[in-house]
Amino acid sequence: MKMENRLVLMLVLGLGTKGFAQTYSDNIGYQYSLYLSGKEYTTISKSKLYTNFNNRLFHLNLAHTLRLEVDQLELPIEYSINGSSTLNVYDFSYAVDLSYGVSDFMELHLEVEPTLTSNLGKAISSEDLYLFGEAFALLTGELNSRPYHLQLGIAYSRYLGEPELLPVVTFSTRISEKLSVKLGFPESKITYSLMPSGTLSAGLQYEGKYVNLSSPLYLEENGSTEKLKWEWTSLTMDYSYVLNELWSFEFGAGYLLKNNFSLRNENEETLSTFKLEPSPFLSSGIKLMFN
Hints:
Strand order of the largest sheet: 1-2-3-5-6-7-8-9-10-11-12-13-14-16
Order of helices and strands: HEEEEEEEEEEEEEEEE
Helix content: under 10%
Number of helices: 1
Distance between the termini: 42 Å
Protein name: DUF6268 family outer membrane beta-barrel protein
Structural class: mainly beta
Pfam families: DUF6268
Domain DUF6268: 123-287
Radius of gyration: 20 Å
Shape: globular
InterPro entries: DUF6268
Strand content: over 45%
């Protein structure tokens, strides 16, 4: 994506990582996504296990997130790793968000997220590790008697594929008792509450990963590659239902608008790129809530 297009995208959508209009809750969950395209070199599946929990330290609120994600990819036949075109990407992160309430209308946040992203072909090394984070102010107010949240700050993130410094501007508001809207990047979402326990949402999401290939991919003409830049854009439709105060589940369907890969050498020079065809996908998940 050209820099001019990125700047326009940031100005139109804003940037952000969470819907801060919702209340933090302690939970643990699992999500599985299956990509339906039968063509060669497509994403096969995504599995994600995560937990969120919160505590206080003096005057600070701490929100913790642990996440383990395993992606299985079927690459073009000309790319191979130990004779196989199947690539498993392991992504593990721990994020802690420290927030301090300056007033009834403003919170200051600092988030740090050490992350391991690799195909784990060899023992873990410093090449597998990345440090992401962000700092922002969260402003709360009312617009035409409707509550809103405005997030302003800066983030070092991988939402556009490779790690880079990006501004943070996210706006969320509740249109009515049942309808809420969030405009942001990497996600914009409309959520509608189906009383008493269901929620229907639709959104546009940008995601990316920068993967260390500790067991390199070998190209037919260019030799080996040690880094993989991966970025994708998806349209999603999700339905979630709260069974009781402990359990909830979610079903989703979506469409990948973009799914691009860039293979790079140890000097991070691009050796090869390829773009996969748009494809539909299905997802399901379950969540256990602790409070």
